[in-house]
Design brief:
Number of domains: 3
Shape: elongated
Oligomer: single chain
Distance between the termini: 50 Å
CATH topology of the largest domain: Rossmann fold
Largest sheet: 6 strands, parallel
CATH superfamily of the largest domain: HUPs
CATH architecture of the largest domain: 3-Layer(aba) Sandwich
Bound molecules: ligand ME8
Structural class: alpha/beta
Helix content: 40-55%
Low-confidence stretches: none
Strand order of the largest sheet: 3-2-1-14-15-9
Number of helices: 19
Mean pLDDT: 96
Radius of gyration: 26 Å
């Protein structure tokens, strides 16, 4: 199989600022993309999954200065932490882009020239508020004052007054075009609640956007004017084009993957992706991405996550404590994707011990142990199926379409909930069919029941690979399912009777609190 019979699929994460260490929020966004990328590959798509780091701008320059090292050395170090995170979380990204790479500078400068040639960039001067933390401009009316009387942006970031010569992008020319885009293609921005926010923002009126800075140096130079560097968001957004070979629009990757199928972002940066980015692309006459989805934010035990409170969650620490696939499952299942959600130790343990150890872990362990002990370690033969057998087999067979439609809407929690409904049904079926009793009364029927269960486990394990790749690999190995028969096309090819299975071993251990912890 070539893996491309369903066409191509290009998915991107935001590129992360290198001013800080990676935290759970970064891991969350990239995980959601990883799950989709893996799902699409198994569903026969040729996938490009991109992540990387955003290395220019005032915020990064200041962080480098504070660390007492030059920005390039600083960005090399911090970017590596993000690359390490992709390893630690078993992310399957096909590329890792850094905005300090030459391929990217070339793409940015080219896009700038195109925008300028088409008359959408002009030189003026900017006087207004700027929040370095957000790398964003704000109008006076958007600001409030904090307890110290300092002006702050709606995000809570402090702002400073900036006055300097600046190039502007004619964003105001795109108000109607953007509104038409949201109207004509309701799936362009998700979830719907966020789409409405974007529409009201644009309806509120768009002012031309300052797209260059002169008061610091760490950025991509504006072509033809060395005094200016490009606004970090114009630079950063362009990464999605750089990675497919832009400005070479005849490049194979560009041809196969642009426009992107999905830009996944956190709710904090939706405006940049759903307003500025399509406007830049329309101005340059380039095709628009198909969808932008904004997920919510995590809190920690009910509290906003912040460095000053000191409650930042390190994904590596979570993985060490609970296990990688447990953390991956928790993040995708616990919170309706798109909504804000809370991390708590209790919720983590409850998913780990309930959904994983008790439900799927126990199902696989007891079924495979019975096959191993009572069927000479081989997948049993089956007789005619009863209504109860068919009901279980039909419910597992319906999951592929259900997951596909939920995952296409980024409703990971719903898809997983549906899988767990089938897992519960399978556990109930074990209790009702009681194969341990059949062992004494009707060996042939026992074989059929265990066959139905093993087949159910096979399909569930194939479908859950995108979320828990390592654990599902172990489960499928225990069924002795050949490694090249684990894609979604293979769902329809039932288990072969007579195949020897491995000695079953628990895949999902229970979390046991240490004494005195
Ligand atoms: O904004 N919960 O980079 P960034 C969930 N460089 N997700 C969170 C989170 C939380 N508490 N905190 C952060 C930038 N995130 C720009 C992007 S793209 C062209 C440029 C996630 O390092 C979320 O995805 O500030 C958010 O959008 C991203 O981290 C911001 O990362």
């Amino acid at each position: 199989m070539t893996g491309s019979e369903n066409g191509s699929y290009y998915i991107t994460t935001p590129i992360y600022y290198v001013n800080d260490k990676p935290h759970i929020g970064h891991a969350y966004t990239t995980l959601a993309c990883d799950v989709l990328a893996r799902f699409k590959r198994l569903d026969g798509y040729d996938v490009k999954f991109l992540t990387g780091t955003d290395e220019h701008g005032q915020k990064v320059e200041t962080s480098a200065e504070k660390s007492g090292i030059d920005p390039q050395t600083f960005t090399d170090q911090v970017s590596q932490n993000f690359r390490d995170l992709t390893q630690a979380c078993n992310f399957s990204n096909d590329d890792f882009i850094r905005t300090t790479e030459d391929r990217h500078k070339k793409a940015c400068q080219n896009l700038w020239r195109v925008l300028e040639d088409k008359g959408f960039i002009y030189l003026g001067s900017y006087a207004g508020w700027y929040a370095v933390r957000d790398e964003a401009f704000y109008t006076e009316t958007e600001l409030t004052k904090n307890a110290d009387g300092k002006r702050i942006a709606p995000t809570g970031a402090e702002v400073e007054w900036v006055e300097e010569p600046s190039y502007f992008f004619k964003l105001s020319a795109f108000e109607d075009k953007l509104l038409a885009l949201y109207e004509n293609d309701p799936s362009f921005v998700g979830p719907d609640s966020r789409r409405n926010e974007v529409i009201s923002f644009v309806k509120g009126g768009l002012r031309d956007l300052s797209v260059s800075r002169t008061t610091f140096k760490w950025g991509v130079q504006v072509p033809g004017n060395n005094d200016h560097i490009m606004y970090v968001w114009l630079d950063a957004l362009t990464n999605y084009l750089t990675a497919v070979g832009y400005p070479d629009e005849s490049a194979t990757e560009y041809q196969s993957f642009w426009p992107a199928d999905l830009h996944m972002v956190g709710k904090d940066i939706l405006r940049f992706h759903a307003v500025y980015w399509p406007a830049f692309l329309m101005a340059a006459d380039l095709p628009l991405p198909k969808r932008i989805f904004a997920h919510g934010w995590w809190t920690n035990e009910g509290q906003k996550i912040s460095k000053s409170i000191g409650n930042v969650i390190d994904p590596n620490a979570l993985i060490e404590e609970y296990g990688l696939d447990q953390v991956r499952y928790f993040m995708m299942r616990e919170v309706p994707f798109g909504k804000d959600g809370d991390y708590s130790k209790q919720a983590m343990i409850s998913r780990m011990n309930g959904d994983l150890a008790n439900d799927i872990g126990n199902l696989a362990q007891r079924v495979l142990s019975m096959v191993f002990k009572n069927c000479e370690g081989k997948i049993p033969e089956h007789g005619d199926f009863t209504d109860a057998d068919r009901e279980l087999l039909d419910s597992v067979a319906a999951l592929h379409d259900k997951l596909r439609s939920d995952f296409d809407k980024q409703s990971f929690h719903r898809g997983l909930e549906a899988v767990w409904n089938v897992i519960s049904a399978a556990n109930k079926y074990v209790d009702e069919q009681a194969p341990w009793t059949l062992k004494k009364t009707d060996l042939a029927r026992m074989g059929t029941v265990l066959y139905v269960l093993a087949e159910t486990i096979r399909q569930i394990a194939i479908l859950l690979q995108p979320v828990m790749p390592e654990s599902m690999e172990k489960m499928l190995n225990q069924l002795s399912l050949p490694a090249d028969t684990r894609t979604f096309v293979d769902l329809k090819t039932p288990l072969k009777s007579g195949v020897e299975i491995e000695k079953p071993q628990g895949v999902f251990p229970r979390y046991v609190e240490e004494e005195g912890a």
